[in-house]
Amino acid sequence: MSLQTRMAKGVMWSLLEKGGQQAISFLVFMVIARLVGPEEYGLANICFVFFAVANLIVLSIVDGVVNLQIEDDERLSTLFWAVLGIGVALALVSLAAAEPMALALHEPRLMPLLALFSVIPILLALASVPTIMLLKELDFRVYAVRSILAATIGGAVGIFAAFHGYGAFALIFQQIALFAVNNLVVWTSVRWRPRRVFSRARLGETIRPGLKLAGSMLINVSEREVPRILIMVFMGPLALGYYAFVARVRYAIQDIFVNPPFAVLYPSLAKLNDDPVGQKRLLGVFITAAGVAIFPILACAAVAAPLYMPILFGNKWDESIPLLQVFIVCGGILPLQFVVREMLRARNRMQRFLKLQGIYVAAVLVVTIAVLPLGLVEVALGTLAVGLLFVPVFYAALEKWEGVALWHELAKLWAPIAASALMAAAIYGYADGPYAADDPWLRLILALAAGGVAYLAATGVLLRGEIRRVCGYLKRRRTGEAA
Asked: Could you state, in order of their start, the residue ranges of all structural domains in the chain?
């Protein structure tokens, strides 16, 4: 089978994996969130900070299998035993830290949770080498089966436990079941088995490529996990539950509506590396498309949150709605950052982006620490303010480093922002107006319809040129006229 055919099949199975896994996971999340409530959800998320660290370490170590195309038993076995040893060490750390953390945070319920969680780093380590071997072979069919089956069985276990009153333990049981199924699927899908050999000399060369990946992942983990630690320490599990819940909803919206369009930007830019003018044109089209397509979706998700949150998650999470609304608006900054990241990535300048991203994350964490005593909504507003302030910093850096100026394209975003604001005003006006329907589902549907009509009307006035530009570019690309 040719590489092109394997890649095409890989894309198909990858889309199935992501779509199916996301749908199942979000449905499970809705049910469990309804059953356990904010405080129990917050307690479980302290354990997930440990998981983020374990995942960072394990993925970084095994990345060399793909990068170096490793196939020999000696290096694979050495890597397996090294990762398994790290998994066991992380499990022991989780066990040892259980009582001190429970005492330090004045949360005795945390001790048995962390003790139970200690199983997960071992399961993660056991599956890491066969999983990365499947990735090396572009066998995304097994990836899809693994993800969908694990999400389904893990979700069923979690829902069963939550329904029977296990609270935060239900989330840990869910993850244990998920990783157990992962192991079952991947180990039955590869013929390789580890031998009893270990070479310290070969280990160093094997893990070296993953150290670069670790730097990038460390920035992302810090951005996501450090605020959770701070919130737990200074505000307690209830506040952490609200924050973690909002983050989960926000990332689901991001994964569905923000990330997919940018999956094609990097390879498209890479093909245009000999055509700087074509690259700039493509970046401009993506900025315009983000404004026309992504901004209204995020505005709709933010302003309609008071309508769909009680329907989907129940009234236990009502206090998190203002926090969710601000964080969804923060999502509008991500596409603008992605444009800069993918351009630097295409020109093999990712280290420069990581430095810039590191400064940005540091600023977000400083602001989070400063405003945390004021409340969670203030933390979200501080994050939004830092993001807005850093947009010109990202684009100034892109112009300085690569000579690509996109200020004109950014300035034209006023039109989709205005159209999205009109849509949001229409949704809010209907939902809070005297003619709003009494039935929650009908009120939501009619509010969204009012917003859609308002956006279409605003589009006809403000965005005709932008839509013609995006459609024209896509048409030329299909017919081969564009660079």
From this structure: 3-209, 264-479
